[in-house]
């Protein structure tokens, strides 16, 4: 056989191994724990009472001011007063508590993911055993085997399912998991990838101090799951969003700005005050790069207000900053603001809630014959500072496919 012929055969067999077209989001599910739902205007009183910190009046007043500015109305938590009564060590960072925290989250993180994944699988309409790959993201994975294996068992996935766990990616974990799922689906014909992001703040919870108030005012618990696959689609599979191109960018010199660290007393975190400004300064460049990679020269014709938007609502000022630098009309970030208001920042899981809200909104709008944007942008960010950007394409009428 000539080299050219061998190369041709290899090329043909490689193209048979690849999926057709871009990967698509085929189904979405979300879930929150049933532990406690805390209204944001009651959070400071509750937090200082259960942590026996009412005497720290200045900190409590500061937390009230911060809560008022978050754009959050309520959050869901696995953690309850009963759990805190059983674990007083969770209130004092100096006491060893990591083992007890991990014992709880090692069970609860996969269980929460299961609730979200079960909804996605039902919507998808195929058996769970048709899932070929699992990508799991959480900041609570401190053990092996980890939450990905437990989720696979809970859902009854096949033993040959290829599992990947993303640990401590924080808030860009959802974006990174979707990016990875896209690459897997496009490079493995017939692959169906379950993305699961499950976050429970119990690993980070602590009594109030001067540095942890913003995190306690912002973060909540939730899980999101997405099924991703490329063509050919099976009968009944419905593309919700095509994942056209994806990029990851790190803002140089910003390692200090966002971080998480596992300690004997739980996971410590820090959020620098400069984060909204740093994102504002860098986000348009990431978008231009992603759209140029997706559309080539036609990217010049893209107008930000002609797109639909799925932005990780890291915090209210982050959304405000992005809205300002991109000169977006206020309704463009409505899905992100809705998720922030109803659930707070659920770290890596949040972007899945935003995609879910966006598709529900698009389906409702289609009922009213409103003309919907076909092209969209997804943004997720977290420690690094890392920005995950994805160009999305959706049917103009989501009910037609
Ligand atoms: C049961 C409970 C369970 C809770 C568990 C705890 C959960 C921990 C979870 C850990 C997960 C960690 C994941 C880490 C990865 C993050 C990834 C991302 O999302 S990336 C995105 C992460 N998101 C972000 O980084 C954005 C977070 N920031 C915000 O959302 C807003 O800035 C705001 C709501 C805090 C204030 O609204 P704004 O319009 O700015 O209002 P003002 O200007 O009027 O300031 C009011 C007060 O706030 C102060 N202050 C402000 N910023 C900070 C700060 N960073 N630092 C300290 N303080 C800060 C400011 O000094 C002032 O104090 P004071 O003068 O009154 O005494």
Structural commentary:
This protein is an alpha+beta fold and 401 residues long. It has 12 helices and 13 strands. The chain has helices spanning 3-17, 40-50, 57-68, 81-86, 98-124, 147-155, 173-187, 213-218, 275-295, 316-325, 334-343, 350-367; strands spanning 20-31, 36-39, 74-77, 133-138, 162-167, 192-199, 222-231, 241-250, 258-263, 266-271, 308-311, 375-382, 386-393. A hairpin with a 3-residue loop joins β12 and β13. The longest helix is centred in the N-terminal third of the chain and has 27 residues, at 98-124. The site of stearoyl-coenzyme A has 35 residues, from α3, α8, β9, β10 and α9.
Indicate the proportion of strand residues: 15-25%
**Physical arrangement of strands within the biggest beta sheet:** 5-4-6-7-1-8-13-12-11
The counted number of beta strands is: 13
Helix content: 25-40%
Helix-strand string: HEEHHEHHEHEHEHEEEEHEHHHEE
Mean pLDDT: 93
Spans of 5+ residues with little confidence (pLDDT < 50)?
Answer: none
CA-atom Rg in angstroms? 21 Å
Ligand identities = stearoyl-coenzyme A
The DSSP helix count reads 12
